[in-house]
Amino acid sequence: MVEKFDAIVVGAGPSGNSAAYTLAKGGLKVLQIERGEYSGSKNVQGAIMYADALERIIPDFREDAPLERHIIEQRIWLLGDDSYIGTNYRSDSFNSERPNRYTIIRAQFDKWFNEKVREAGALVICETTVTELLRDASGKVYGVRTDRENGEVHADVVIMADGVNALLARRADLQEELPPENAALAVKEIHFIDPALIEQRFQVKGDEGVVIEMMGKVTGGMVGTAFLYTNKESLTIGIGCLISDFKEKGIAPYKLLEDLKNHPVIKPLIQGGEVKEYAGHLIPEGGYKAVPQVCGDGWMVVGDAAHLNNAAHREGSNLAMTSGRFAAETLIELKKQGKAPVAANLALYKKKLDESFVMKDLKKYKNLPHIMHMSPQFFNAYPDLLNGAAHDLFTVDSVDKKTKENQILKSFAKRRSIFGLVGDAFKLARAFR
Amino acid sequence: MSVIKVEDKLYQNRYIVDENRPHIYIKDAEVCASSCKSQPCTFCCPANCYTKDDAGGVNLVTDGCLECGTCRVICQDNGNVSWNYPRGGYGISYKFG
Ligand SMILES: Cc1cc2nc3c(=O)[nH]c(=O)nc-3n(C[C@H](O)[C@H](O)[C@H](O)COP(=O)(O)OP(=O)(O)OC[C@H]3O[C@@H](n4cnc5c(N)ncnc54)[C@H](O)[C@@H]3O)c2cc1C
Ligand code: SF4
């Protein structure tokens, strides 16, 4: 007899852990399958964790979750060749009792979350890769096959929380392959460093932290961003660009990372650290238009596997956790009402997504991926121009200010025609509206 | 400019190697050599698993693979990469991630 569950959750990242935890708490019989040595061992993130999404699942998570630093300052920098121009926002109000954002280390955080899933009563099996969905003649999903001997397991519903590559859905023809322009490849390193140096260089104390998001020359004109985050006793530095751009430009990802580390304004911040790991991962960046069908007879797909990722705001894990929770709540509701998990009933999951920030935010920025892709000047000319303008304005010499202003305007007009400038501003404003 | 050695980076990582069971393979070596001019896998892979060989083809060694999926996505036009995750428990095992 093949064992049968109310639900099988494939994957133990934030989306899978949220789904499995909520299901188990709701009294359902849950099996969670993870291919890694442990939950988190395959997972890569910046990583900023947004408290609100987790709080709605585990309200008292702050008591024992492995959190690094809470963020009190956000910097956004446009890098020039040897300079940056940018904005900083720092507020002491982020030092509240229940901070809103934290840096985390994913391998440790996921492991903790998965412990909670087990405590809630789900059966968790690691070191097991799900190879395919089991479907009957009508296409209804009734379980999964794994790479274990006699590795067939049955369930009323399979929740695919298997991340950006979403092999299960693609192999079952429930999703098309990722186009290279809809995914970014990010590489990152973790540098261990004396916490006193972190405090000194980033002007923080205790568990306070700073995050820096960067755009500009370091991506070599490719659509992408870089980041530098402070952890308790380490710094995380990484950079990611669209796969299609890597392909077109012929640039190796680790070369970008090295250039970033050697950039004159970054180098002093990370100096003296010891690199302990190098990681690479994809980020789904196609936005609203790339979100596939998210449920059908006997199946739902959550998190990165459903392309739920807000590239404009670099939010992913919170959308993952929220979609995992919605999928679980949908099943719990259906079960209570004695309704079968067929497509028409599972559509409640889609409705929950649509009515929440998840789809509303993705919809708001639905044209942004396309605009960024069509506008390399955002990643190339503008950082240059703005850094140049700042340089000229802040250099005190014998040139009068009026002449400087005119020179700056001219340099802008030369690099990008006035119509281009106005057009870009308009396009960007519309995409962010 | 110094040459970046990816091997040094990968050396920091923990791998649980599945001896003689590569999870990714090139389906038809001939396709790489004759129909793929740009061979993007040789510069896009973050672990440098793909290298050009002397005969104009591509050589693949998956030992340092980060399991990102880039090579599968990038080789869609030729569909010449057979891409799987390693068997459960094997492959990269991040301590930090
Ligand atoms: C470099 C980088 C920086 C990022 N920074 C941020 C950030 O700062 N803040 C933020 O909110 N988001 C960030 N993101 C996005 C965030 O990491 C993702 O949105 C989030 O991890 C998605 O969660 P998930 O559970 O859907 O997928 P994942 O975290 O990818 O988890 C999928 C899980 O499924 C398992 N799995 C896959 N296939 C199978 C199978 N066949 N059988 C069994 N198990 C399987 C995997 O091993 C994995 O554990 C970042 C991403 C990257 C790559
Ligand atoms: S999956 Fe990623 S790391 Fe592995 S071979 Fe392909 S591109 Fe390289």
Give a structural overview.
The complex is a heterodimer of chains A (433) and B (97). Chain A is of the alpha/beta class and 433 residues long. Chain A has 15 helices and 17 strands. In chain A, 36% of the residues lie in helices and 25% in strands. In chain A, the strands form three sheets. In chain A, strands 1, 2, 7, 8, 9, 10, 16 and 17 form an eight-stranded mixed sheet that branches. Chain A has a seven-stranded mixed sheet with strand order 5-4-12-13-14-11-15. In chain A, strands 3-6 form a two-stranded antiparallel ribbon. The termini of chain A are far apart. The relative contact order of chain A is 0.15. The model of chain B has no long low-confidence stretch (mean pLDDT 93). In chain B, the strands form three sheets. In chain B, strands 1-6 form a two-stranded antiparallel ribbon. Chain B has a two-stranded antiparallel ribbon with strand order 2-5. Chain B has helices spanning 6-11, 29-34, 41-44, 70-74, and strands at residues 15-16, 24-26, 50-52, 58-60, 81-83, 91-92. By secondary structure, chain B is of the alpha+beta class. Chains A and B meet through helix 3, strand 11, helix 6, helix 7 and strand 15 of A and helix 1, helix 4 and strand 6 of B. The site of flavin-adenine dinucleotide has 41 residues of chain A, from helix 1, helix 4, strand 11, strand 14 and strand 15.
Proportion of strand residues of chain A = 25-35%
Q: Which ions and ligands are bound to the chains?
A: flavin-adenine dinucleotide, iron/sulfur cluster
Secondary-structure-based class of chain B equals alpha+beta
Q: How far apart lie the N and C ends of chain A?
A: 56 Å
Radius of gyration of chain B: 14 Å
Summarize the structure.
The complex is a heterodimer of chains A (433) and B (97). Chain A has helices at residues 14-25, 51-55, 106-119, 167-171, 195-202, 243-249, 253-262, 267-270, 317-336, 343-355, 357-364, 368-374, 381-394, 401-415, 418-432; strands at residues 4-10, 30-33, 48-50, 70-79, 84-90, 101-103, 123-125, 130-135, 141-146, 152-160, 183-192, 208-216, 224-230, 234-242, 274-284, 295-296, 299-301.
